[in-house]
């Protein structure tokens, strides 16, 4: 499947004009960053990088795409000829997937000709904005859960393909598994799920539904006990599976109270090893409120796939450096309106650590062609951990970042970066970004 | 591309147990409905129906899907054998795409065996929940725009495939076009877009950028005039294209004031026919605030693809009628927790109209196998407009609802249904659902 038409029309009309006037071959650097975090959030989580690299490899214009562009009159023949041979031959660096970001963090740097780099804008932003929105919400949930597993169950509340990406992003940010089968297949994720209320209702009574499920899935299954009366449901569940019953799931009601009652009932029945899974409109705040309840894992749906109030990131893809008519590279930036101004020049970034604790995001930029270097050890003894990693070199995608290996690596990066944050950053309450961003022109 | 794994794992584990215990072949009716609208919203818009029907036709388990299910140990061999031959042979009726809905509206009714119907749950909800969220927001924007065209430009703020669906849903709800090329190709939508700030910055100065764009796209193009100084930008734009310049776009700043100034400047320059397009974080409220500004069209991004604060609908897929061990059909419903209870029994619906104005959503249900009939003409002279249309009959998808014809038909349905609403329903301010829903057990 080509990804080439997952693109705003203006990328191609700009390309047409630039091919005609000769500027299309100018070397350009575009950067992806966000101007602000969602209100009250302390940090964001970069996600989608691996998916983006896979999508760039599939960004090719075959006959089907070219025929439609021609028939719809989107671009002229010269542009179609260019697109027929299109592949990205430039280089891309960026924050490793799973890394934390802050306002102004240069999370992706795309270096190539204008023609090759501009057409990737829409695709890059679609992927990074959605996946990062999900991962940023999921990260808050996993630390609110404080070690108890979070399970992603939100496929039905997201576009059917977004659901696959959401499952992946949630796992990057620490979720233990997902209900989504395609995400399991594509990225090697653990998939979970046993039964819905419909299964109980299909049967003539709860006893026969539970007996059927235990016969099919074994006593280690999770039985959903709240279709009728919960107390009766728990009793029947243990009767059906024995005290080795894997888990019961509660999907409605006042969960803190209910979990306590069900735990007591299970223990009294001798099912002391039977776990309690809760679901039902959980978000990070509801998870935190269940911290002292005897709950063993959390099924999270709507809130994680919709970014818990922030369904997209505000990441933008901006031209920051370009070759001029004189052949020299020069920093550029939109300058008209205050809120949308940005800093020109190519950037690199490091995270300052004092005694292992992050204290600052340092963004280095230069007004000319030189690429600033992040010096890992400052004179003061602080560490400046470099944040950019190479993702694409001369058109070759780094394999370490894609597929299921990429997800695993991103998950580790996320966990390590989160461990560096000061304790105050891990509050659910609204506040300023956890780290200030210092921009240094060198 | 098979859509079969865009599915929660529990649909297949339920299937396995039901195949083993003999209940899989019981006739079942599942219904899709929502318990509430997003806070303050007056109505919702059904969208995605055409996409769902296309996705159901592609819901087949081929070797790739079966091999993974086997290797991951999701289901047993008997279930894999069933899935290998799976196709939906039942019937589906529902609200026509583009129709308005209210809490309790039975927007989709799926009638088939448990085995055939249960596995469609996740896919049906993913599509209807996302597409309806976008269309519900887009509908508010199009009437806030009061006849001025709204253009969908939000691809970069949504998952890359969700963006295609969002463009389609926005057009169903009255948008005039989209920036998304794949949506243009797949659904025959008008695509729009000319240039971003990067195109101006690529060039050595604004003059050469505008000259290049006019040479490439003709003077009827839209020039983006806010990269540097807007007044100077407008002057250069008219100098480059002449007074026949198609439009200027403003993407930042205080738009009501700026639009007025730019209109005066354009008129003074003789460019009286040059239109003004505004973009920059517009939502329905910002559009309404521009009602008296001299603006010709609205480019809408983030807010439309994220449902303007409501990024998903709360639609659920519930078993309401099923065959029991006695072979009789019986109404069923979850009964434990108040908020999640629902009304059992198969439903049909009609919209009551008095003098052409909608006054009530009437939902008829029956506790047994009989399907209630909506009688179009009540004794009082009111009209009860039937809301269900046949979508799939014995596995055959109605072609009128899919592809670009389906989008066009949905757009007409939306427009006609909106015209029936009382004036008070078309307020942006928060309020109760525009129509009460009356459930009648017959």
TrEMBL record, chains A, B:
Task: From the UniProt record, give the pathway where this protein acts.
Answer: Cofactor biosynthesis; NAD(+) biosynthesis; nicotinate D-ribonucleotide from nicotinate: step 1/1
Q: Write out the function statement from the record.
A: Catalyzes the first step in the biosynthesis of NAD from nicotinic acid, the ATP-dependent synthesis of beta-nicotinate D-ribonucleotide from nicotinate and 5-phospho-D-ribose 1-phosphate.
Q: What is its EC number?
A: 6.3.4.21
The residue ranges of the Nicotinate phosphoribosyltransferase N-terminal domain are: 5-129
- CDD domains for the chain: NAPRTase_A
Q: According to its UniProt record, how is this protein modified after translation?
A: Transiently phosphorylated on a His residue during the reaction cycle. Phosphorylation strongly increases the affinity for substrates and increases the rate of nicotinate D-ribonucleotide production. Dephosphorylation regenerates the low-affinity form of the enzyme, leading to product release.
Which keywords describe this protein according to UniProt?
Answer: Glycosyltransferase, Ligase, Phosphoprotein, Pyridine nucleotide biosynthesis, Transferase
Q: Name one GO cellular component term.
A: cytosol
Similarity-based family: Belongs to the NAPRTase family.
Q: Indicate what this protein is called per its UniProt record.
A: Nicotinate phosphoribosyltransferase
